[in-house]
Amino acid sequence: MHIPDGLMAPAVAAFGWIIAIGFLALTMKVLNKKINDRQITLMAVLSAGIFVAQMLNFPIGGGTTGHLIGAALATVILGPFAGILIITVILIIQALVFGDGGLTALGLNILNMAVIGCLVAWYVYRALRRANEKAAVFAAAFASVFVAALAAAVELAVSHSISGGTYGIAGSIAFPAMTIYHLFIGIGEAIITSGVVLYIARVSPGMLRMPKLTFLNRPKEVVPDA
Amino acid sequence: MHKPIDRKHIKIIAGILVIFAIGLVGYYLFSAEYGDGLEVTMEEAGVGESKPVYTGPLDYGDSYASSLAMGIIGFFVTLLVGFLLARLLRKSDA
Predict the structure, then answer these.
(1) Which residues of chain B make contact with A182, given a CB cutoff of 8 A?
(2) Is B68 within 8 Å of chain A by CB?
(3) How is domain A10-208 classified at the CATH fold level?
(4) Is the CB of B78 less than 8 angstroms away from the CB of A90?
(5) Burial level of A151, CB count in 10 A (0-12/13-18/19+)?
(6) How many other CB atoms sit within 10 Å of the CB of residue B23?
(7) Average pLDDT, stretch A89-117?
């Protein structure tokens, strides 16, 4: 779901940069001086692990593939703001070192996959985890991909509309296509994320009980035993 | 004092890279030729990719060996950047 250069209208790409920079500033403020040594190591290892996982596209049928975004995985383990930072680091390295995702579209990619992906995953996970921890992880991972894809479809449709068709894709094509493909990609994300979280819960449950880095001036939340 | 990288972390890193090396086989067997959800949507809409404004110094490679090498390079670059960035934000009293 990495948006390339030249696909979105310049105004939409600029909007993405403004929102992404705003959220990154908030993220830095939330995380500043709150991370401990264990979380530092975990953030680095999670970033690197999600980077390689994103290289492994899996088939969803019909000649289409998807790959893990990892926003829900990072969020479930370290909280939404650490997740935003982790996915942002990955997206910046992918764009600057590997040319994956356009530089002009980097703001939108950060907005969709890091900001929307992590915040959606966090709120879905938080809403459901007391009822069923495993279902909460599955639903959070699915929703993070699906809502991020819907956001990308909105950006495509708005780009198309405001540019008279020069940029973007008409909503009549973008919405059904992005929705259907990412329905299946979201299920793939949910299966992989659930598998990794279940494995961590078995071999290193303390990792899932680490304090979550959430919002300003709120008590740190602790996840109950998986 | 907590060591940033200890033997347990080295085992985790090695485990991730082994899973990546195995997963890459599956990628080349089943997925390498196909586009992702956004790319296929662009194809259906008849939208081609424009010339990028910036081309990265590396790419993901087009064979198992080159992709494995690029994945390992990317893994360690991301590990280093993630570590340095997180350390900048660490607790002042940690």
Answers:
(1) 37
(2) no
(3) Arp2/3 complex 21 kDa subunit ARPC3 (1.10.1760)
(4) yes
(5) buried
(6) 17
(7) 97
